[in-house]
Amino acid sequence: MGRGAGRIRRGRRRRATSTRRIDRGCGRSQEMIIERLDLKAYGLFSDESLDLSAGPRRFHLVYGPNESGKSTCLRAISALLFGIPTRTTDSFLHSNAKLRVGATLLGPDGNRLTVIRRKNGKTKLHAEDDKTPIDPMELEQMLGGIDEAAFHHRFGLSHEQLVAGGQAVLDSKGELGEILFAAGAGVGRLKAIQTELENESKELFLERGKKRINSLLSELDEKRKIVRELQTPPAEYQLLKRQLAEAQQQSQELADERTRLAQSLAKQKAIREAHAIVPIWRRHKAQLETLSSVPTLDEDFAARRREASANRQTYQRLVDQLQREIEATEKEIQSCLIDPATMEHETEIVALFQGIAAREAASKDQANLHRVVKNRNRHLRELLRDLDIDITDDAPDDEVDQHVDRLHVSDAAQIRINELAGDCEMLRQQERDSLESLQALRKQLAELDDELERHPDVADPAMIESVLSEIGPPATLMDQADQERSSCRDLESQCERLIRELRLGQVSLDDAARLQPPTAAEIDDHDQTLRDRARFVDDAQKTVATLRKQLHDAGEKLTRLQADQPLPTEQELEHSRETRDQSVDRLADSRDDEETFQQSTRKLRQSIRTADDVVDTIRSHQKQVTERASVTLEIANLKDAIDAADEAVIQAERLAAEASQQWSQLWESRGIAAGKVREMRNWVAKHQTLVEKYHSLEKERGRLDSTLTRMDRNATRLAHALQGAWSSRPVAAGHVAAGHVAAGHDGTSAVVDDPMNLESLHDRATALRNELVAAASHLEQIRRKRNEIHAALPAAEAKYESNAAKRKQWDSDWKQAIASFAGDQDVSPSVISMRLKKIAKLFEETRERDIILGRIRSIDDDGRSFAQRAAVIARIVGLECKPDQPSAEIAQALYERLQAAKNAASQTERFKADLTAAKARLVDDNQVLEAASGQLAQLCREAGVDNTDALPGVEQNAAEKRTALQACARAEEQLALIAGGVAVEQFAQQVESHDRVELEHEIGKLEESLQTLNERWSAVEQQVGALKKELSGIDGGDRAAELNQELQLLHGTIQRESQQYAKLRIASMILQQSIEHYRSENESPVLKIACQAFEELTCGRYAGLKPEFDDKGRSKLFGIAASPAGEENLVPVDAMSLGTADALYLAMRLASLEHQLSAGHAIPVVIDDCLIQLDDQRTIAAMKRFSRLSERTQVILFTHHQHLIDLAQSALEPDHYHLHRLAR
């Protein structure tokens, strides 16, 4: 069966065969399917399989509730085909080394490949035996070169992808290329990717913006300017460098001297420190020489000696105690007596003892059974008297048995009696029923004959039926006329609204529709001209603004140069020189006048000093003066440029005004008021809509006229047919009211004169037709019923005669059957049944009494057997018994003797076990005792003594030697650390050769010299620092080097950012070109399939899809809304609801898949619960689409919604899908 047969099965395995098997009859062209998915050890699955081989439609619904492993199956398919991820979440139950997922794949050419994929190991793919390696190329050939990313994007669909795709459809604003590319590539975030590329590129660089590259370029220009402004250092720079070198050399010499003095001071301090350690070292060395004969023992020697002595004493005591216990136990064993004969017959004695209680209970039961037998016999006599058999209470049991035997009825006789009793009431009832049926038929036949005599024939309604059939229901034409009138009114209203929106004033609809606006080419030409002229004006105005800003910056720079320090200008220099020359001329003129000459000389000296000061000032600030002159010249040039730019703005504005005037004339020549280009494009689009609406209105008016003409013609025909039918209509008493006939005749002439009253005419004609048909039908029913009854009458008579004969035969058979035990043969079956039950109860009582008698005899036999066995066992074991002693007492005595023998045997075994345990403990304790003695002997050998009594004294001497060794080693270690690389003995001799007082005096002198040297070195270092600071203040080389290094870094940064910007721009261009190329290649075939799919997925709300070009020449996609009038109502994509956008994306994905399948390799389509957002009808439509797609490739849909399964079971054919339920 197609459904329910695919439940997960545990442990199913096929016989190991070759990895590749050829099956030429199962493959389909260019299709790879998964026949079986083996979840051997993956996630929560262990050794489970999913059979996906069912066909011919390979649409598999895999259902599983939450936590049942649905997502694990999805990951397992991807892991099988492309590898288990390095970091997987499916190893929580099975370790990475044990992860296994396998499958049986059916290739396009019919080849089967059974593989198992591992996570770890050098070889990941193996055959079905999990040992034989498989070449990965075999699996890649099955996949047809499709990698993991392509599989998930092109052949996978999830709820998240569907939602993202629907949102992408809305974000695309209907851009056909983007929608096609997103659906074909399975990329739901296409618009987001484009936006990210654009935003990232704009974050890097934006013309006339302040982004990263712009900022880096500005910083590069600024640093280049600073480098150019750095000047050559002055002449004293070389002197400072020489002074710095001398100071550094002096600092190095002082530092060397400091190092030498510090080393000498450290050496003297080490000798001072060693003065206190050397005597201690000497003392401990002398002590070690004294204790040289004492053996060197480890620290735990005393503990080992004490432990070994304690063990020897303890275990010696335990050994002595165990030996005494062993002797006592052996005596106890010898005193125990055992009865082997009684022990040998333990089973028989126990059985006899256990049978005592049974014998007592059997005796009691036997007395009770005798009373029961007596009661049974009394009950049998009572039953015999109930059966009319005379028997006394004191009659013997044999007489009772004889009466019972005579009442025996055979099984065959009883079955026959039961059969006859069951047939009795049935036969009598059949006889009564057949008689009543016969009488009823005769009565009905008489009544129908009377009714036929009262009814005349009726006229034929065929003529009016023919007319009604031809014209059909009037509501259709009337509804059609109403719809057409409504459509006309709607179209007229739309046209009037469009005329108002077009601002055409009081103009007729015909004139408005005949207006000829400019063509799109003319609008594009004028639009381009207006844009160019506007751009020229904008560029000119921006140029003026830039020049004015530069002029403002130059003015601020000039003000800043003048504010820093008042500098003489070239005019001031020329003026001072002229003043000097004039003074010289006056001096020459006043040589004759001494006083005037002196004054002229002073003025000349003053003017010469002033001119020299101006020249000196200009020379010392040559750069500032030159820069100020340059800025002044730049300001003059900028003013000239601004004048020229203002003229260019005026010229550009004039051209723009001319273009605007030409634009207005273009529209005014056609009688249309001109607006902006965008507004006029919308105006043209609305006018085109008006023209289309006008044509639709003309067509609708023609259809309305045609409908009205048909209504007039049908009304006329119906009136004439009605008049003819009334004239030939017969009057039948009891069926047609006379008043109705008169009203009909009166109304006929009226409706004929009113041909527009089509609905009223149709109602009256229908009523007349129904009346005639009903009358004819009623008469025909009477005739048919009369014939049926007349034909059934003979059969009813024969049935009655047959039932009467059967009843008479039963009476004869009944009397014969009960003759053997019923005296009165007229007894009813119920009485006979009661007598048979009493006879059966009589025989049941007899059987139960006989069973009880057999039980009494069995008890007697068991008692005799028990007494014989007890006597035999007593004789064997030697138990003396009395001749008349009861068997129960013998069994009791045997059991007591058995218990005494068992107690003696048990006590003996216990004593033996105690003896064995004591001997084992004695062996263990002897071993410990020997080990302790051996350890003490070993300690004596280590200490060099003969007995253990001398060990404490040796331990004390060894401890003193060990303490001296440790103290000496510590002192020697300290001396070695102080002495550096000098031998300890040599260093000790050097320490001992120094006087302590002289050593302290020498250390003081060295510390004083080192302090003086440190002060000198610090002063020199401060001088070096001051020289370096002064040198860096006038040295531009370091700053220039730093700037050059920063420029190199800036160059590298700008290069990296520019490369990234170029990559982003190229990626955006390639993506756009790919979208356009995909659209041009796939638009026609994919859109053709998508139209039908979209109509199905929207359940007829949309009739299809249609591409249109917008005013910029871009291809836009529109939905065609379904219309009862057959109109083509286009709905933009961005006006659709989110659910409809999801359906559109799904339709495009399915269309792209079907188109790809027609030209390429097919692999399974895996869907992850993508339908949960759709309503029931759209979900059913989508599953039907999946089912049709599964005829070309395998489709596997995973879901955890039971409602989806219910929809599939109610709407899909059983062989159109296959249901699998995950067992967990």
Care to describe what's here?
The protein has 1224 residues and is α/β, with parallel strands linked by helices. Among the domains are: 247-274 and 995-1035; 278-295 and 953-993, no CATH class; 462-514 and 695-783; 520-680. Helix content is 71%, strand content 6%. The chain contains 33 helices and 15 strands. Helix 4 packs across helix 31, helix 8 (236-274) packs antiparallel against helix 29 (996-1034) and helix 10 (301-335) packs antiparallel against helix 26 (887-943). The longest helix is centred in the last third of the chain and has 61 residues, at 1037-1097. The two termini are 22 Å apart. Mean pLDDT is 76; it is low at 1-29 and 730-756.
Please provide a brief summary of the model.
This protein is 71% helix and 6% strand. The protein is built from 33 helices and 15 strands.
What tags apply to this protein structure?
71% helix
Give the secondary structure arrangement, pairings included.
Elements: E1 9-10, E2 20-22, E3 33-42, E4 45-51, E5 59-63, H1 70-82, E6 100-106, E7 111-118, E8 125-126, H2 136-143, H3 148-154, E9 156-158, H4 159-171, H5 176-185, H6 190-204, H7 212-229, H8 236-274, H9 278-290, H10 301-335, H11 340-344, H12 346-386, H13 397-406, H14 411-454, H15 462-471, H16 474-501, H17 509-514, H18 520-564, H19 570-589, H20 594-620, H21 622-668, H22 677-727, H23 738-752, H24 758-817, H25 829-877, H26 887-943, H27 951-979, H28 984-993, H29 996-1034, H30 1037-1097, E10 1102-1109, E11 1115-1121, E12 1129-1132, H31 1138-1159, E13 1165-1168, H32 1176-1189, E14 1195-1199, H33 1202-1211, E15 1218-1221
Parallel strand pairs: 5-14, 5-15, 9-13, 13-14
Antiparallel strand pairs: 1-4, 2-7, 3-4, 3-6, 6-7, 7-8, 10-11, 11-12
